[in-house]
Amino acid sequence: MSENLQNKALFSQVVELLQNARQQVLRTVNSTMVYTYFEIGRMIVEEEQNGKDRAEYGKQLLKGLSEQLINEFGKGFSVDNLQNMRKLYLTYSISETVSSFSKEVNQKYETVSSIFKNESIKEMSKPTLNFILTWSHYIFLMSIEEVKERKFYEIEAIKYRWSLRELKRQYNSALYTRLALSRDTAGILKLSEKGQIIEKPKDIIKDPYILEFLGLPELHRYSESELEEEIINKLEHFLLELGHGFTFVARQNRITFDDKHFRIDLVFYNRILKCFVLIDLKIGELKHQDLGQMQMYVNYYDREMRLEDENKTIGIVLCQNKSDLVVEYTLPDNNEQIFASKYKTILPSREDLIQLISESK
Questions:
Q1: Of the ranges 98-107, 162-171, 274-283, 340-349, which one carries the lowest mean pLDDT score?
Q2: How many other CB atoms are there within 10 angstroms of residue 223's CB atom?
Q3: Contact at 8 Å (CB) between 342 and 209?
Q4: Is there a contact between 335 and 224 (Cβ–Cβ < 8 Å)?
Q5: Residue 152 and residue 175: Cα distance in Å, rounded?
Q6: Which of these, 175, 135, 177, lies nearest to 156 by C-alpha position?
Q7: Distance between CA atoms of 135 and 275, rounded to whole angstroms?
């Protein structure tokens, strides 16, 4: 290896090390800051409990504390932000934490505790919550009132390092509701304890899929090829909407037999289920022939493309509209390979979206 190549290799290793170090420092700073706000919230709540008229006393307490802290430390301690700190403590009580998600809680607690000199803080019982996300993430999460839903989004944001923007997008597209409505009580509980767990083909299916990132107006006339082109142009967003474990394989994948050519719109591979996932795009109402065509594609992949250690191929037909009865009577009772889902090119209101999901189940 030449000296120049050796220098490049060394440079790359040093850059990677420094970048990892910066990310670790940032995570530690974020965690420490949120723990600090959690403690401030605890102090505020405990002080409020000592007041005779809690509502009025609490209001004056926050106003006075805000003025003093801003004078001492600058911005960041407005009354609104102090109220958020108070809410953080009240929201993330011991019974509502995701403590089992991390093994570093006690170590991080010691780091935070060492910052303070106040004896009352040292004497507090160790929290079991590991604050991994940013303060902005937690402000948004606290707006989610349903505990199981909030836990789900927190776990998913941690596991897949969602930005605040992505977290809001997933929430506004009702990801939890779309997944929960296809599960029983035990399955919903798992969502809140472990996030989305993929064990069988149905676990990766959503109905509807929300494709607002394509920028196609709902009533705009477009062809299937135009829809496909926009998906490819926004492939990173589409993969996020598909869910966990997907990798892109091909578009307009041609298969040939008996001198006839057929093209599958999109081919993906799911690393978790270890199987191919074929997607066909349909404009308008789903027809039984569309499901039959997908069955042919799936059969071809299973017999010609699938390796011995891979699982059976999954086929998804994405359509603008569908009849559940057409799907039910076209597919066999024990079907675990072919699925039909609607897609929306605009993001409906959460209420309209939840109603839409409920009607499709």
A1: 98-107
A2: 10
A3: yes
A4: no
A5: 10
A6: 175
A7: 38
The helix/strand/coil state of 113 is helix
Q: Any bridge partners for residue 277, and if so which?
A: 268, 314
| Helices (H), ranges, the chain | 3-48, 54-73, 79-91, 105-113, 119-122, 135-141, 147-159, 164-172, 175-180, 185-194, 224-233, 235-242, 288-300, 324-330, 350-359
Structure tokens at 98: 């995701």
Length of the chain: 361
Rounded Cα distance, 47 and 146, in Å: 27
> What value does the mean pLDDT take over residues 313-339?
92
CB–CB of 157/168 below 8 Å?
no
pTM, two decimals, is 0.72
Cβ-based burial of 319 (10 A; exposed 0-12, middle 13-18, buried ≥19): buried
CA 309 to chain centre: 29
Angle, helices 147-159/164-172, rounded to nearest 10 degrees: 140
Range in 15-19, 145-149, 232-236 with the lowest mean pLDDT:
15-19
Instruction: Measure the CA dihedral 150/152/153/154, to 10°.
Output: 80
Smallest CA-to-CA distance from 247 within 273, 282, 216 is with 273
Q: Which residues contact 134 (CB under 8 A, 6 or more apart)?
A: 30, 34, 164
Phi/psi of residue 107, nearest 5 degrees: -65, -45
Task: Give the tokens for residue 281.
Answer: 């795009």
CB of 57 within 8 A of CB of 51? yes
Residue whose C-alpha is closest to residue 261's, from 296, 233, 225: 296
Provide the token pair at 157.
Answer: 């944001």
Pick from 279, 215, 276: nearest CA to 252: 279
